[in-house]
Amino acid sequence: MPITDLLERNAFLYADGIALIERKYDSNNITFRESDSECTNKLSRSILTWNEFDRRANQVANLLLSNSIKQGDKVAILMMNCLEWLPIYFGILKAGALAVPLNFRCNSDELQYCLNLAECSALIYTSDFTERVAAIRYQVPMVSRFIFIGDSPPDFTESYDAKINTFANTSPNTILTDNDLAAIYFSMGTAAGATGFPKAILHTHRALMAAGEAEQNHHMQTHDDIFLCIPPLYHTGAKMHWFGSLMSGSSAVLLCNISPHWILETMSQERATIVWLLLPWACDILDAIDNGDIQFQNYDFSHWRLTHTGAQPIPADFIKKWLKQFPGQTYDTNYGLTEATGPGCVHLGIENTYKAGAIGKAGYGWEIEIFDDNLKPVQSGKVGELAVKGNGVMVEYYNDAKATSAVFHDGWLLTGDMAYEDEQGFIYLVDRKKDLIISGGENIDPVQIENYLLKNPEIQETAVIGFPDFRLGEIVGAVIELKPDSICTRKDIYEFCKYLPKYKRPRKIVFDVMPRDSAGRINKVCLRDKYK
């Protein structure tokens, strides 16, 4: 069934049940600690029932259809996490259009690239992004509708706030099937091009349903669970984990800003049973406990049954420390990629915590294989390229047949990650075949940063690599060979990089001579070994 049917089912079965809770803290006070007695007074909290969720999605669908958006059109979403995000996403699907979530960290050039690559007809965005959108409005010719959420909409936009409640809250009754196209997500992917800009990954309703089925199966979600969702919803990781709540008709909490105290307070007050934490946030919680900034007696952990982490390699030592600190919980992690509908194609399982360090076995509804360079299966214990197969695999890289053909082999999706299987069938990642940096769960392609750095007239050559970081997994580092007689400093390079998106700016600068392989290319393997 199309995934929109689940929302309509929940609206019927659990009409007045809470679907979503939004919690926003005053972001100007992110450094306060538990001793700040005004902490909880800086919280705004809103709720949406399943019936309200469905009705608002219907209004969004009818708004789009009135704006000449038709089945198969692409509608982009550029928003921070908020209560309106998911109803807008489902409204796009109910109209028969494709939802195109955009990374809110993208700068104007990247937004322009993504909107044009996906051939978007409309963009729904909030006031947070007014300047970025205004800067590219004439460079995205296919975008005929700009729908603005917030006060003082620009003159080239339509006001969402002023019009949304004028549209019917009944279903437009668009006919959808499993095979209909549903969404385009962006990722650096296994075949990111020389520009370093992301690929457009095309998914069907069947793929989204497969993600929800895997999530509910892996975490055994029931209608009584409450899921705390913190990562950004533009990312398949957050969205597909939330699909477990959609499958079970259970409640989810959207925490819109982050600190160790806010995470634990939200978990405690909302009685969350499942919490998904990126490794940096989990490390921050442990550090806050070690530093005495978090006092256990201030929280109720009795209902918290499962902690789930992922989106980057998770050190086995961290898992042991976490379970020692929270002995009443189960722990889980998994592996995924946007091309395979996000997380879950490889899954550890709560019963396998003793295998900490492995990413797991084939997830629910998935098959896995490891291939050598000749695309032949390798024996157990041998390293090769991990490949996956299942209903959650993408249709294609949109508008990129060459990149699509490069990652498919006989129905298998080649992930670009090197791995091996142990004697018990558990998969361990070894290295990446693709040249990506994974920092705090974000995929960052070094090529775009390298191309930017080479615009600096003082730089002869550069190689951008990931430097190990316990909290973020990796940080962006630039190894730079300066031109002869250059007097450029690290401070100069940091200043030069301030126009890059913040998460792509090198956090470590090293001046060195570039090592070369036998073909004369910069040897990044050598650099990674040298600076690991």
Can you tell me about this structure?
The chain is an alpha/beta fold and 532 residues long. It folds into 2 domains: 4-307, Rossmann fold; 437-531, GMP Synthetase, Chain A, domain 3 (2-Layer Sandwich). It has 15 helices and 27 strands. Strand 14 (330-337) and strand 15 form a beta hairpin. The longest helix is centred in the N-terminal third of the chain and has 17 residues, at 50-66.
Characteristics of this structure?
single chain, 532 residues, alpha/beta, Rossmann fold, GMP Synthetase, Chain A, domain 3, 9-stranded mixed sheet
Helix content estimate: 25-40%
Main sheet makeup: 9 strands, mixed
User: Which strand order spans the largest sheet, edge to edge or round the barrel?
Assistant: 2-1-11-10-12-13-14-15-16
Tell me which CATH architecture of the largest domain applies here.
3-Layer(aba) Sandwich
Determine the number of helices (DSSP H or I, runs of at least 4 residues): 15
Which spans have pLDDT < 50 for at least 5 consecutive residues? 29-40, 189-195
Estimated radius of gyration: 23 Å
Could you tell me the strand content as a percent range? 25-35%
Structural class, by secondary structure, is alpha/beta
From the N-terminal CA to the C-terminal CA, the straight-line distance is 47 Å
> Could you report the average pLDDT, rounded to the nearest whole number?
89
- Total strand segments: 27
Large-scale geometry: globular
CATH class term of the largest domain: Alpha Beta
Q: What assembly state would you assign to the polypeptide chains in this entry? A: single chain
CATH superfamily of the largest domain, called what? ANL, N-terminal domain
